[in-house]
Write a structure and sequence with these properties.
The protein is built from ten helices and twelve strands. The termini are far apart.
Length: about 290
């Protein structure tokens, strides 16, 4: 049986990646209880040997806000552990392919929307800068040591199990009667259901090489924040959201993926955004 390891495999995206790999016939090991911890100790890395065909790296910092508030701490949980992972692969497990879960945050305030992978990265948040450092490590280990990896830059991933960020906050506010949100509401984001994201990570894993190809993970469509929040409030019968116009540091106005490269692999998003958000709202209601 094929074998794989998912770091941060008990985190939000990690859990879905584990399921996708198991569905594809992999025996999957999980490292780390959460995508928000630093699980890559020397002892845990030692358990990864050359019999492991694939590592999907979902561990590390996962919050723009936290990276702005505590940049050093967020850097420490993201970049050094990934460097240790690549070093271990190079020395002990050279036939293992590595998938890096990266982020659209590396693009910053993208000058081209939809944004292709060829656009030069220019992160505006520490979170984006940390992801870019991890990407650069992939390139370095590929060139210097032949470590095979692939980078997937995910845009706005959502789905049942996500207990933070806009959708969770909107559900919590709607339940409490709060209708106030920061920003203008006209910010555009590219929403990708977590099952589609996990499937892309699986498909892209076959492309891992020392040349380190990069793929965007999104729907290819921009949707205004006010439309997403508005649907949640309608589904929860909670009134009409109001936006203050105050923006948050590190949040560009528009994030939309050019997914031409991902589609060239035969991958296509399967879950309609409105149906996916309605499913998320149902899940939230079951939790509270």
């Amino acid at each position: 049986m094929k074998s794989a390891v998912v770091t941060g495999g008990a985190g939000f995206i990690g859990e879905y990646v584990v399921r996708a790999l198991e569905g594809a016939g992999y025996h999957v090991g999980v490292v780390g209880s959460s995508s928000r911890t630093d699980p890559l100790t020397a002892e845990r890395l030692a358990a990864i040997d050359d019999g492991c065909e694939l590592i999907v790296h979902c561990a590390g910092g996962s919050s723009v806000g936290a990276s702005v508030a505590q940049p050093s701490a967020e850097h420490a949980k993201s970049v050094p552990p990934f460097a240790a992972l690549l070093d271990h692969v190079q020395r002990r497990s050279p036939h293992t392919r590595v998938v890096l879960l990266s982020s659209a945050a590396v693009y910053g305030a993208a000058a081209q929307v939809p944004t292709p992978e060829t656009l030069a990265p220019s992160p505006v948040s520490p979170y984006g800068a940390h992801k870019l450092e991890c990407e650069q490590l992939c390139t370095s280990y590929g060139r210097s040591h032949g470590v095979a990896s692939v980078i997937v830059r995910l845009f706005s991933v959502y789905g049942p199990g996500l207990r933070k960020q806009l959708l969770w906050d909107a559900c919590v506010k709607a339940r409490s009667g709060d209708v106030t949100f920061g920003g203008t509401g006209d910010e555009e984001r590219d929403w990708l259901h977590v099952r589609d994201a996990a499937n892309l990570l699986l498909v892209a894993s076959q492309q891992a090489s020392a040349d380190v190809p990069i793929f965007n993970g999104g729907s290819g469509r921009g949707v205004r924040v006010r439309d997403v929040v508005g649907q949640i409030y309608r589904d929860l019968r909670a009134g009409t959201p109001v936006f203050t116009g105050q923006t948050r540091a590190g949040d560009p106005q528009r994030y939309v993926a050019d997914i031409t490269s991902a589609r060239s692999l035969g991958w296509e998003p399967q879950i309609d955004r409105e149906a996916g958000i309605a499913d998320y709202v149902r899940w939230f209601q079951e939790q509270t």
